[in-house]
Amino acid sequence: MRSVQQVADANPATAQSLIEAAGFTIRKTTRHPKSAITVEPGGLPGRIKLIAKAVAHRASYEWQYSTDQKTWTNAPASLQAKTAIAGQTSATTYYFRFRAVTKDGEGAYSQIVQLLVS
């Protein structure tokens, strides 16, 4: 005996009506895209850990931070998709972004993420 799921998978055009005719409901899933960059406290006061989604096997990563999203300060580049930045002021909100540099050139900056430094 075939399951409702197997029959629905075999007949995508009529899958919804097959599932509902069998007495089941279709659950809608919401996918939240993962950010290309995450930021978290670095374990010490004023220290921040940045983790980017790796772009390519051979890439370098340029990191920037800002307190106003207008003036950006460069942090040291890295050959890994993660880095740590120290010396941030407590009780200040910082904004972070990165871009990858590959053999094809510089990529666009990532979306901006923020963290209130403790």
Description:
The chain has 118 residues and is mostly beta strands. The chain has two domains: 1-30, no CATH class; 37-116, Immunoglobulin-like, CATH 2.60.40.10. It is 12% helix and 36% strand. The chain is built from two helices and eight strands. It has helices spanning 4-10, 15-21; strands at 37-41, 48-52, 60-66, 73-78, 82-85, 93-102, 105-106, 113-116. The strands form two sheets. Strands 3, 4, 6, 7 and 8 form a five-stranded antiparallel beta sheet that branches. Strand 1 and strand 2 (48-52) form a beta hairpin. Helix 1 runs antiparallel to helix 2. The longest helix has 7 residues, at 4-10. The radius of gyration is 22 Å and the shape is elongated.
Short description:
With 118 residues, the protein is mainly β. It is built from 2 helices and 8 strands, in the order H-H-E-E-E-E-E-E-E-E.
- Which residue ranges are poorly predicted, with pLDDT under 50 across at least 5 consecutive positions? none
State the order of secondary-structure elements, H for helix, E for strand: HHEEEEEEEE
Number of helices: 2
pLDDT averaged over residues: 88
Count of structural domains: 2
